[in-house]
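quick one before i forget lol
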Amino acid sequence: MPAFRYVPILRWKEGEKNGIRAVAAADRVDVMPIFVLESDQFKGSKATKKKVAVSSADHFVAQVGTVWGTAPFYLDASGVPAPAGTTHPIVAIAAAARTQGLHLIPATPLGAPAAYAAAVSAIAQQDARGVALRIDLQEFTSAASWAAAWPHALGDTDLVADFGDDIGSVTKLGNIVHTVFQQLHAGNQWRSVTIAGTSMPANFAGIKQGLYTINMETLDLWRKLHPIVPYRLDYGDYTTPPLGVIPPGIVWGYPINARYTVDGQYLICKGVKTTGAGAVDAGVQLTGHAKAIQGYAQRNRLAGCWADDEIDAIAGGAAPQGLLHWVKIGVNRHLTLLRRSIP
């Protein structure tokens, strides 16, 4: 068994869902994903002449069962609104998960809306599986001031220091961050502690066509921290940029870019536009990206990784399909490589 858990954070969108679904069973050991559910992805289906209506909660839980099976997972549904005076939808999700035999553990940010906090407490009390708490750097450093008021036992709480795409600002603090993690309030009393974040860029506006590498700053920081803290520090990161809005510079005919994870780095394939001067067809560019990845000296092809088989197939002439398929490739490769990289 691995010494550390891997806690990837995935938005509940098609590319992420398909990417984790394709992860081999052997690469799921001690992987504990946080699924982040927003209102746009929480929808059921109406009744038709051939099908009965399916509630949003039942539909979501059925999808999780298909994608992840009955292995434990965290769910942060704090982004799904609850009308005033109503029970938060995560209660219905948890009920559906019990019915379908899924192992759901609710996750929440500190200071979540009252309806969501109450729902998380109700689920934790009924299921007795604890909770996950996602906090930022300021909350991490000030844990001594709020931990006593936290409504769950620390021994039932998985603490996730989730720095999102602000990890660069965190790493610039240097040894101060080391001290902060070493002196975490009640460090050994939390059920688990995880550091998470990403330096994966959301957009590449202003960058010229070609191959680029970007260091995985969260992984670098974790490798420095876990040997020096007085508790086990698990590793987490994002499989896609953690942004809820379309970044600037995305317009029709946008450049065809691809992301691929290599040892300790993100490999960025920057394309060109598909319309206007110098345009190149999207399929041609994606095939070129597959060939560039296949020929990259530090690629480290992984046996048994669906994404790497797909890259080689596309490089060899298979249809490159669309960008959504390439999100699946990037997510699957990232998850597989990280699980094999973390001891």
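fyi The chain has a mean pLDDT of 93.
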